[in-house]
Design goal:
By secondary structure, the protein is α+β, with helices and mostly antiparallel strands. The chain has 14 helices and 9 strands. Helix 6 runs antiparallel to helix 7, helix 7 runs antiparallel to helix 9 and helix 7 packs across helix 11.
Length: 382
């Protein structure tokens, strides 16, 4: 079968169908032919568009002789407008401290998986943490994957190298009895942040998400809560509001009737505090402000949290472990993983399984008994 070829104007490349029905896009730039194989014609056209766009923003594809240091610099420049400043800063730091010193003058097409693996192993031997090495892998893999999509390399060598799997620390959380004990103790102490602790346990929200909540985020009639920001500490001191940790972190969750009632009581408490503070009150509409209406400091909340746990005779855990507590309670009460994932704001259920999958085996006996019941023949008495 003859190739179906779509010719384009100079500097725009070409797209044609191969005998195996796949499609191939090609671009020739400064004498260097770049190619891409896709499933559809439109996929190849999109690749050509993105490749030419990279040229417009200054990405250099002069030849296969491009070195790692040069490529990484150009890649960082090309992604600058597409990632958060904190993400870009991390990319730059990893590139500067680890990738360039290891591969500096190596041509990108000559980079091998064993060289990358050697970097990981060496850093581990020198005492660098497993999570840090995994971050190096993530940045390098992302950059090289970009080169692969643009046709600069034919395979991603970082896909073969294996980063270490961080050791999973023993997860701490409270069971149902401990949760009740903690909340009862907090109520007896007339704890100001009782509603905060309650909402952390019933929703599994992150502390930064909780402290950024505003009353306008609640739909009282539908009993829903919209999570659309988090409280982050600023460099040099102070706090700022920023978008949630991920796209999935921006979510709407349902609230129970008891939680709604508790929030109403908390709202009345703030009205009294606002009246007492007078002109000093900074009305930002926060659900969990300090006594002057400003964002509450996480360290002060943690101190109060630890005090309640101690008085209740409970083991010491972090505030973030209330999120683990929420997940454990949901999973142990047979809430589907996909529902738990959505409530926690995970980008996909596999993340929930990776983090909390070890909590699910407790359900295996129930499943085994259920399947026995289903498959055991019923004796019919006459």
């Amino acid at each position: 079968m003859a190739k179906k070829k779509l010719k384009r104007a100079n500097n725009e490349g070409s797209v044609f169908q191969r005998p195996n029905k796949s499609w191939r896009g090609q671009v020739t730039i400064e004498g260097q032919r770049l190619s891409f194989t896709g499933k559809t014609q439109n996929e190849c056209k999109e690749w050509i568009r993105k490749t030419l766009n990279q040229i417009d923003v200054g990405m250099n594809f002069q030849s296969t002789k491009i070195e790692i240091n040069e490529f990484m610099a150009e890649w960082l420049a090309s992604v600058e407008s597409n990632v958060r400043p904190t993400t870009l800063a991390q990319y730059q730091q990893i590139t500067r401290d680890y990738i360039i010193p290891a591969f500096d003058k190596i041509k990108i097409r000559d980079l091998r998986p064993d060289q990358i693996q050697k970097l990981y192993n060496l850093k581990l031997q020198n005492g660098l943490g497993e999570r840090s090495v995994k971050t190096i892998h993530a940045v390098l893999h992302t950059a090289l994957n970009h080169a692969l999509k643009l046709g600069i390399i034919e395979r991603n060598p970082a896909s073969v190298a294996k980063p270490p799997r961080p050791n999973q620390k023993e997860m701490k959380f409270y069971d149902e009895t401990q949760v009740q004990k903690f909340l009862i103790t907090a109520k007896e102490l007339n704890e100001r942040y009782l509603t905060l602790y309650n909402l952390a346990i019933t929703t599994g929200m992150r502390q930064g998400e909780l402290l950024a909540l505003k009353w306008d985020d609640i739909d009282w009639q539908r009993r829903t809560l919209k999570i659309q920001r988090q409280l982050k500490r600023k460099k040099g001191g102070g706090f700022r509001f920023s978008p949630p940790k991920s796209k999935a972190g921006k979510r709407t969750i349902n609230l129970g009737q008891n939680t709604i009632r508790i929030l109403r009581d908390h709202q009345n408490l703030l009205v009294a505090e606002k009246y007492e503070a007078g002109e000093k009150w900074d009305n930002q509409g926060l659900i969990f402000p300090n006594t002057l209406g400003k964002p509450s400091q996480p360290t002060k909340i943690l101190k109060r949290f630890n005090n309640i746990s101690e008085l209740a005779g409970l083991p010491k855990i972090r505030f973030h472990d209330l999120r683990h507590t929420a997940a454990a309670l949901m999973l142990n009460n047979n809430v589907p993983v996909i529902v738990v994932s959505q409530r926690l704001g995970h980008s996909r259920p596999s993340i929930t399984l990776d983090v909390y999958g070890h909590l699910i085996p407790s359900m295996q006996k129930k499943v085994a008994d259920l399947m026995d019941q289903i498959t055991t023949p019923i004796e019919i008495q006459i």
